[in-house]
Design a protein that fits this description.
The protein is of the alpha/beta class. Helix content is 43%, strand content 15%. The protein has three domains: 107 residues, no CATH class; 55 residues, Alpha-Beta Plaits (2-Layer Sandwich); 200 residues, Vaccinia Virus protein VP39 (Rossmann fold), CATH 3.40.50.150. It is built from 19 helices and twelve strands. The strands form two sheets. Strands 5, 6, 7, 8, 9, 10, 11 and 12 form an eight-stranded mixed beta sheet that branches.
């Protein structure tokens, strides 16, 4: 591809992304798959350009003084304007005189904090910490979990495939790989020796403290990562019920189970009214996903105050269901991949006010009994993980025991 055509491809993708209707990775992947003629170098340029714009969207919008896709794209490319408009076929629409004059102007206004933080203003108002939000805008390493083998053995297997990794700082199963891991080209993945899972999620799973004799449900199991991790903790023993209201999500777990040789997970999209008395009710609640923005920075612009309020109502309802289906002495393990207190501590506080039969579990003690690393929080009863504090995605865990 000639230079202008590459920049035009970036613009076409960005124009779709900025509509805030679909995840950016889907838009990018669909675009590339539909154009198999695009070579590896051109593909790399296009994809990197798109993600640069997404991660700098607040600043580019502020500098361009416009939310129009073409203006944002032009401001991003302004230092290479001759390469953009090289006059070749398949290049962008010619620069107008008005656009040319506009590009000569400099926006010298200082960035407001929310722009510097690359965070929508209404969300920044909830946590006014520029460094915190900026850390959630940096690309994340690929985290994998050793499954069925020791972490050291997995690390050596990956190295033999030319894949370098470092050990996670907390989970004894975690390896971190810089850059993108092409799973279909990785023999260790094909053999079921690893699963892709952020270290924070691995830690949350370890803290479920599951045992073979427990009756366990992974409620809202999604892609099944925690159910698979619990299966590994149990060494294939016991029985885990994986529930999700979305039947297609459950279907997507089956190939993962087969690849890893997992047989102690039962998939279901129905929890019968009489099916109560769980020892571990693992509730990874639907949430804003703010803690995972390192991997999906475009998601912050699809979140709205109305969506957040709807998610909070869902979280409260799911906690009520969990309370009803947890046995005396059993635990609700409430977790989210959110960093917003109103989805985390706020929900737990509200639940405890309404449910006097539950008490918090001391997570510091549980952590020290399970992990060979210092507990990273001041609060013994609410575990908060984030890129600045633990080098992981943002994640929240609280455990509530039914005391009768």
């Amino acid at each position: 591809m000639l230079s202008g055509a590459r920049y035009q491809a970036v613009y076409e993708i960005v124009a779709e992304v900025l509509k805030d209707e679909q995840p950016a990775d889907k838009i990018v992947n669909d675009y590339i798959r539909a154009r198999k003629y695009i070579g590896a170098k051109d593909r790399r340029f296009i994809v990197e350009g798109v993600w640069q714009i997404i991660r700098r969207r607040c600043r580019l919008t502020f500098d361009a003084q416009s939310s129009e896709a073409r203006r944002i794209w032009l401001y991003w490319a302004r230092e290479k304007i001759d390469e953009v408009f090289d006059g070749a076929a398949y290049g962008p629409e010619a620069l107008s005189a008005e656009e040319a004059a506009w590009l000569e102007q400099e926006n010298e206004q200082p960035y407001p904090d929310w722009v510097e933080a690359e965070c929508p203003q209404w969300l920044f108002a909830k946590i006014k910490d520029v460094a915190f939000w900026k850390a959630l805008n940096e690309p994340a390493e690929t985290n994998v979990r050793a499954h069925g083998i020791e972490r050291d053995e997995l690390q050596q297997r990956l190295l033999a495939e030319g894949i370098e990794s470092t050990k996670g700082g907390y989970s004894p199963y975690c390896l971190k790989i810089k850059g993108r891991l092409v799973l279909n080209n990785c023999m260790a993945w094909q053999d079921g020796a690893l699963d892709v899972q952020d270290e924070a999620s691995q830690i949350a799973t370890i803290l479920t403290d599951v045992r073979p004799e427990h009756k366990i449900v992974d409620y809202c199991c999604g892609a099944g990562g925690k159910a698979l991790a619990m299966s590994n903790l149990l060494k294939g023993q016991g029985h885990i019920l994986a529930y999700d209201i979305d039947g297609q999500r459950l279907e997507n777990i089956k190939p993962r189970m087969a690849r890893m040789g997992v047989h102690n997970i039962e998939l279901t999209d129905i929890i019968a009214g009489s099916d109560k008395e769980f020892d571990r009710f693992v509730l990874d609640a639907p949430c804003s996903g703010t803690g995972s923005w390192r991997r999906a920075p475009d998601a912050k612009f699809r979140l709205t105050p109305e969506k957040l309020e709807s998610l909070k109502r869902t979280q409260a309802e799911l906690l009520r269901i969990a309370a009803d289906k947890t046995k005396v002495g059993g635990r609700i393990i409430y977790m989210t991949c959110s960093v917003l207190p109103e989805e985390n501590e706020g929900q737990v506080e509200k639940f405890l006010q309404e449910n006097g039969r539950f008490a918090r579990v001391n997570l510091r003690r549980l952590w020290e009994s399970k992990l060979d690393a210092d507990y990273p929080c001041d609060d013994d009863y609410c575990l908060r993980m984030s890129p600045p504090t633990t080098g992981t995605d943002g994640f929240f865990v609280s455990e509530l025991e039914k005391i009768g």
